[in-house]
Design goal:
The protein is built from 11 helices and no strands. By secondary structure, it is mainly α. α9 packs parallel to α11.
């Protein structure tokens, strides 16, 4: 069942999503929606996000949206980030942005860091920058350390320095 649904979701995500939403068993419906969410962003990330936006409010909607945007970040992190910035402030928004930054930092840590820094000051920005610094330090330790030198002294810098130090000592 899972392989068939995964193939269907890759070939015709809208039809697979409609089928998933029509399942009467809540656990089967949740599993099917998750399967669609895993496959849809590769072919139509914007359509996948619109699908998630139309799910009933609640945890399932938030989880599905988070998963869809994470998959979108694999395909186009800049577009996924631009969309995530428009989300209302919430723990889900923070999680989504951190996931995007972690993915983006694997492929291009410098650009990920620049985008994380473009966020307004606050916890979302601090968490995004923190999530970029581990892959950045692994990719280019000197550049990560140079960045730390540009951060004003204070608790945010202390946290970032500790993050990079842990990362570098683990390698």
């Amino acid at each position: 069942f899972k392989r068939i649904l995964a193939s269907w979701a890759a070939a015709d995500p809208r039809a697979a999503a409609a089928y998933a939403l029509g399942l009467s068993s809540v656990p089967q419906r949740a599993a099917a929606i998750a399967m669609v969410a895993e496959n849809w962003p590769a072919s139509d990330p914007e359509g996948a996000v619109r699908f998630a936006e139309n799910l009933p409010l609640g945890g399932s909607r938030n989880i599905t949206a988070r998963d869809l945007i994470a998959q979108w970040a694999h395909v186009d992190p800049a577009a996924a980030f631009a969309y995530a910035r428009t989300l209302p402030s919430s723990a889900t928004k923070s999680d989504v942005i951190e996931n995007i930054m972690q993915q983006w930092a694997i492929d291009n840590p410098k650009i990920a860091l620049q985008n994380a820094q473009s966020l307004p000051p606050g916890s979302v920005r601090a968490n995004a920058v923190n999530s970029v610094l581990v892959p950045y330090a692994e990719h280019d330790p000197a550049a990560a350390i140079e960045y730390l030198g540009s951060v004003p002294a204070g608790s945010e810098r202390d946290t970032l320095v500790a993050t990079v130090a842990r990362s570098l000592s683990a390698t």
